[in-house]
Amino acid sequence: MTTDQYTFDDPTTRYPSITPSSNEDQPEPGLDAQLGPQADLGELTYRGTGRLAGRRAIVTGGDSGIGAATAIAFAREGADVLISYLPEEEEDAQRIVGLIEDAGRKAVAAPGDLRDPAYCQDIVTQAVEAFGGLDILVNNAGKQVAQESLEDIDDDQLIDTFDTNILAMFRITRAALAHMPAGSTIINTTSVQAYTPSPTLVDYASTKAAINNFTKGLAQQLAPKGIRVNAVAPGPIWTPLQVSDGQPKEDLPEFGKGMPLGRAGQPAELAPAYVFLASAESSYVVGETLNVNGGAPTP
Ligand code: NAD
Ligand code: MG
């Protein structure tokens, strides 16, 4: 039998517990191609069943990690997908474009910098032109750089983190709304950090709390128009973000081990949450944050 997301097994051992080396290091933004051990993006394990047939999606940060797993799953469920990513990530992005096309769907590769307001508008225009419309927006790109103290967070990092995690989300969503008919869905990636911030991630964690708040406010604003807004809050997931200064190096070997499931999650384990919130199955789910975190209690 082929293993896929419908296979019943023990979640504590579904994936091996990884022990990344504290030497695991990449320059920002990090590449899945360089990640050791390799993450599971669902390449061999995600099976589509037509849950997003004919939908048209944007996934920011769709080149790697959680966004890439989501892009692959969306395509296998029948959606066309534009992925947004930084130019340095072309290698990862082209692999995901190939997987979207292998699923028989249209892919658009849109490199650029989300700190640039014009690019935020541009990805929406590109998706609408290529797909003839837009029904799914996943605001997933994010910047996370650990620092021991507040004084170590200089203005460049502070502004970059808020530009990428917050301002881009506002701008892309604003541009997308002009094209999204009733029945569309918006999904924002927040984090367990929104509730239980690490002392080394105060800038990042506060953006994630803001994303939760934005999700709940905008959800009420758009629900009467038939557009549902929700969020996914991952716990510790094995992605390039974590080895490109997302965690203090000395913490990497223990990454995810403190969760009740005893291991870090894989990007492939996040994709079904995004598919659910993007699909019509979640028609009465609005303003919700779906926690996919290995068991951390949340409010
Ligand atoms: P990732 O590095 O694979 O994805 C992050 C992506 O953000 C990058 O691939 C990059 O394309 C994009 N990005 C960053 N800065 C950008 C910029 N200026 N312009 C354009 N794109 C930019 O890592 P990931 O862990 O899959 O992260 C995806 C989301 O999940 C992020 O929002 C992150 O905060 C969130 N998250 C991750 C974890 C985790 O443990 N990995 C936990 C909770 C939340
Ligand atoms: Mg990437």
From TrEMBL:
Annotated spans, Disordered: 1-36
Signal peptide: none
InterPro entries, sorted: NAD(P)-bd_dom_sf, Sc_DH/Rdtase_CS, SDR_fam
Keywords noted in UniProt: Oxidoreductase
EC number assigned by the record: 1.1.1.47
GO function terms (MF aspect): glucose 1-dehydrogenase [NAD(P)+] activity
Coiled-coil stretches: none
UniProt xrefs under Gene3D superfamilies: NAD(P)-binding Rossmann-like Domain
Compositional bias (Polar residues): 14-24
PANTHER family registered for this protein in UniProt: NADPH-DEPENDENT ALDEHYDE REDUCTASE 1, CHLOROPLASTIC, NADPH-DEPENDENT ALDEHYDE REDUCTASE-LIKE PROTEIN, CHLOROPLASTIC-RELATED
Family: Belongs to the short-chain dehydrogenases/reductases (SDR) family.
Protein name listed in UniProt: Glucose 1-dehydrogenase
Organism per entry: Labedella endophytica
